[in-house]
Amino acid sequence: MNRRTFLQTTAATAVAAAAGLPARAADPLKVGFIYVGPIGDMGWSYQHDQARQAIAKEFGDKIVTTYVENVPEGPDAERALTQLALEGNQLIFATSFGFMDATVNVAKKFPKVKFEHATGYKRADNLATYDARFYEGRAIQGTIAGRMTKSNKIGYIGSFPIPEVVQGINSAYIHAKKVNPDVEIKVVWAYTWFDPAKEADAAAALIAEGCDVIMQHTDSTAPQAKAQEAGNVITFGQASDMAAFAPMPRVTSTIDNWEPYYKKRVAAMLDGSWTSESTWGGIGTGMVKIGEISSAVPAEVKAEVEALEAKIASGEYHPFTGPLNKQDGSAWLAAGATPDDGTLAGMNFFVEGIKAELPK
Amino acid sequence: MILGGIDIVTLIATLMAASTPVLLAATGELVAEKSGVLNLGVEGMMIIGAVAGFAAAVGTGSPVLGFLGGALAGALLATLFAVLTQVFLSNQTATGLALTMFGLGLSALFGKGFEGVRPPATGKVPFGPLSEIPGLGRILFSHDWVVYLSLALVVAVWAFLRFTRAGLILRAVGENAEAAHALGYRVVAVRLMALAFGGALAGMGGAYLSLVRVPQWTEGMTAGAGWIALAIVVFASWRAGRVLIGAYLFGGITALQLQLQAAGYAIPVHLLSMAPYVLTIVVLVVLSAIHRRGVQAAPAALGRSFHAST
Predict the structure, then answer these.
(1) Mean pLDDT, to the nearest integer, of B21-35?
(2) Which residue ranges does UniProt annotate as crossing the membrane (chain B) (predicted)?
């Protein structure tokens, strides 16, 4: 428990004791958020908080937003969510995969409160899920990586071996391989979303292994800082634009653009049309944005990935298009076939060609 | 030099940098504990050093001033601890734990404005052609000055404790405060200085995290490094040389598990991360076995309050 959550518990208790009543209709809608890292991580949590600020501005005095940052995945998340619900928040966003079970539990306890869980797959009548197709951004990154690498080694800092991360590794590898058959991908699992020192060490280890492209699926900018130190290594902004590291090492970025979704959901709460659904947005719907491609990327590569981005946006091209085999050589997708979202959401294998072993 | 897919030279060079924060903190804590005081607030002093060092370096543009700022902040926090435990005779364990929580909270408060800021780079020491020597050059001559300072401090602390009169007094205070007092040594003054020195090194270790190893400030970034430093002092059985071994072993395992992964080994990460702690327990068991034969590792007065009237 940190100071903020403590203050909120205290405040919530005081409010509950003083009022003892549910929120009245004329009151502003209270919207709560929990973040897995600090909003100053300049990545994942920062981006969610940007969207929170945007809706606070958009809806003005019709809503009140609250957030709790640095919430560890696990029992603490349940406590933070319960506090937000007790405080009278009617719509609560839980913004990390590891909050899933905690959100399911708390949603059961507060059937009148609406919950939204990011990147998970468990839903309930008052629990919606939303996710972005980060693997579409990885297709762009993989293409740039395959074209620009000189050592033919791509380093990938994974957080946890969960489908969302596995999709990213597979997509990056498929697209790098497509433009550069000699490319190989090295994966280091950090087993954390946010630990700057460890992320920095992981980046350093990959760079020492000869990787001149570093992709990260963790939340801090530490790998960017390490790559900058190394000089000739390129990186991609993760979750947020991370433009402070452009034009080198950050050559482009995958930006999680939660703002339109949050606006839509808050508006639905306000007019009473909120329903539990699962949203999986990509480049096409604007939930995934590709950051500015920096001057370090050769013009023809830039043109190539812009064309790719357009094809993904229009739905003409799916980053997982067959023929594709699984790592063990067994067939996965026939030529031209694409997987359905259910298969993708549960992806737990590497594609053929990746040498790293996926931890069980 | 490649051994089993791992570049040994890179591994050693990486682990030296990765271990420097805990090495500094553990060396400082060693001196404090040698004077008979157990300061469990290392984590708090490190994180305060991390934020203060970062602020000083960003504010002045000079990493050297940053490290000084970090050391100063760590020493200040340690002085607070020293006043509480040595003058007001508060319980050392409880006060140390409180110091950690205080440091974490205070640093988060002060650090708000520094999130996302980039610190000035700490340069490598220019060794010229020496750093071009294959293998050895990477290991010995490719680091920033703080790495060398941390090594020099280990040697200095070792020599101080072993060969100097002041070091003898410090050890006497830690072994038997009453006897030292009876001989006319100022026990509290000696402990105050030892604690301040320990705090300064912890603060400097924290500054190394935020200025070199990551390099950026983020809340709670020490992530338990202070506790590892405390474990290393025990692991080292209160000997300066072994502190160096312990710190490089702990740091080395982290660096090794990441490099093994990068080299494509499917390794049980959790087992490897656990290894140093298991080793510490083994060392403790071995120490207590030796202890029965009359060799004492921990300073005899460690953790006991001293007052001149007792």
Answers:
(1) 96
(2) 6-25, 37-58, 64-84, 96-114, 145-161, 192-211, 217-236, 243-260, 266-287
**What's the confidence (pLDDT) of residue B3?**
67
Min Cα separation B10/chain A (Å): 7
Angle (CA) A181 A187 A191, round 5°: 160
Do B198 and B15 form a contact (C-beta atoms < 8 A)? no
Q: Cβ separation of A41 and B266 shorter than 8 Å?
A: no
Structural fold of domain A3-132: Rossmann fold (3.40.50)
Chain A CA closest to residue B210: A197
- Residues of chain A in contact with residue B215, where contact means CB-CB under 8 angstroms, are 200, 225
Q: Which of A343-347, B9-13, B107-111, B164-168 has the highest mean pLDDT?
A: B164-168
ipTM of the complex: 0.77
CATH number for the domain running over A136-255+291-345:
3.40.50.2300
Q: Which of B22-31, B194-203, B292-301 has the lowest mean pLDDT?
A: B292-301
Residue ranges of the domains in chain A?
3-132, 136-255+291-345
In the predicted model, what is the mean pLDDT of chain A?
89
Q: Using CA atoms in the order B70, B74, B80, B85, what is the torsion angle rounded to 10 degrees? A: -170
Mutant choice from B1, B208, B216, B274 vs A, greatest count of A C-beta within 10 A: B216
- Domains belonging to chain B, first-starting first, are 2-291 (1.10.3470)
Q: Of A44, A154, A209, which to mutate for an interface test with B (greatest number of B Cβ within 10 Å)? A: A209
- Do domains A3-132 and A136-255+291-345 share one topology? The answer is yes
pLDDT band at residue B269, thresholds of 50, 70 and 90?
confident
Segments of chain A scoring below 70 in pLDDT:
1-26
The DSSP bridge pattern shows strands A127-132 and A153-158 to be unpaired
CA distance B84 to chain A (A): 24
Q: What is the CA radius of gyration of chain A?
A: 21
What residue type is assigned to position B177 of the chain? A
